[in-house]
């Protein structure tokens, strides 16, 4: 029982851990959308109360941020995918030219995981006979050949997550009456950041309160700084 427990929540390609990593990334992307857009619209609100100006600034921030997130994620994941492909090509070449050495290597890797020498050898032989490339990819490289990272999926997920997060402060600053825009935005943003902090902590099996305090504290600081800057610029007539 105790030996099986650590497997729960661990990141395995295509398994629960992999899905949790994607979900955690989505939460963080939404969190970025909330903070960056809130800082932008609150800063503009410090300089002007024009709904048109606030909407324009918020939409510009939403589009720029979501595109930047998507492009950055696409480049990052494309680089990772290229590295995975190169590693698989190298492994395929080694299996073709040095099968005995690769079998010995696989046996050693399985021994390092806690198997006895005899059992590690038997498992290595069976895995190699079944699918040598997959065995080495998963055990040696930590790669599932059928589940390589997809840069388009990553870019789309980042775009969507940031957009969803950015919509909250944008709508909160534009829809309410003039006198309620700022307080409603601040309360909505802090509530959303508390939820993001709680969710990310739960996904990482970490204490929720420190994550919530960090998240809301950072968001509050961002809004205070941008509001003060916007108010100063508005007062100076810039």
UniProtKB/TrEMBL annotation:
Keyword vocabulary terms for this entry: Membrane, Transmembrane, Transmembrane helix
Membrane topology recorded in Swiss-Prot or TrEMBL: Multi-pass membrane protein
A Pfam family annotated for this UniProt entry: VIT1
Bilayer-spanning residue ranges: 152-175, 182-200, 212-235
Plastid as UniProt keyword: no
Locations listed in the record: Endomembrane system
InterPro entries: Ccc1_fam
PANTHER family named among the record's database cross-references: FE(2+)/MN(2+) TRANSPORTER PCL1
Protein name: VIT family protein
Lineage: Bacteria, Bacillati, Actinomycetota, Actinomycetes, Kitasatosporales
